[in-house]
């Protein structure tokens, strides 16, 4: 049993399970653009609200770490009788996947890392400083109003103005509290497994948008350089949340990767 909110979609007798882990917002709904495509392709899919967010409420300790978030995933795998999963993570969710692959490698069949990183970088640190300053000085409404600037390209925001406004209202209505948000940001800022990348041997899809204004695409290149069995999917446009803004192309790449890594090897 787990107190965390999770959902299981797709056929119960599927050969493999895909677990999707969201970024800083923590909500299972982030993966809505992928869910239908994955289920239609025959995958069993688990999505969840991360601890201290959405429908998984609770106060987080100040020393909450990415390793704690990996333990939360193990808790969900146990609750769903899932021995092993293909793991996809966006940004912070990608860090959770990397940590899980180090701490419980038998649980991970493959990784798909979307605009993730292996160690801190000064540009993202500056962005988080600005976001925390907004939160401290002006409160949650200002914080969530700024969020689309970091997630989406400007042209996409303008074209989808009502959708963006609705997302901001939803984020404000479900804001996890300043203490929880600060604990989550502190956890991702402290994450550094760069020296251990070679210890991760599972097949990995590295997906990044080169116009991401929050996380430099070179962080994904660093992951690709340090890991073993890597498939690269770099796109020129789409922003930090290009799995949302360019969902059809991202979904094709993800499904192609899953088809490759899920196919049994042919004996020589």
Q: How are the secondary structure elements laid out?
A:
Blueprint: E1 6-9, E2 17-21, H1 32-40, E3 44-48, H2 66-79, E4 85-90, H3 92-103, E5 108-114, H4 122-138, H5 140-151, H6 154-159, H7 161-173, H8 178-190, E6 204-209, H9 217-226, E7 230-235, H10 242-245, H11 247-262
Parallel strand pairs: 2-3, 2-4, 4-5, 5-6, 6-7
Antiparallel strand pairs: 1-3
Helix pairs in contact: 1-11, 2-3, 4-5, 4-8, 5-7
Structure commentary:
- This protein is an alpha/beta fold.
- The N and C termini lie far apart (about 45 Å).
- The protein contains 11 helices and 7 strands.
Number of DSSP-assigned strands: 7
Identify low-pLDDT runs: none
Helix content estimate: 40-55%
User: What is the residue-averaged pLDDT?
Assistant: 96
Rg is 17 Å
Q: Which structural class do the helices and strands define?
A: alpha/beta
Contiguous helical run count: 11
What is the 3D shape?
Answer: globular
- Give the SSE string: EEHEHEHEHHHHHEHEHH
Q: Termini distance? A: 43 Å
Q: The biggest beta sheet, please?
A: 7 strands, mixed
Fraction in beta strands = 5-15%
The spatial strand order of the largest sheet comes to 1-3-2-4-5-6-7
List keywords for this structure.
seven-stranded mixed sheet; 11 helices; 268 residues; alpha/beta; 7 strands
Summed up:
The protein is an alpha/beta fold.
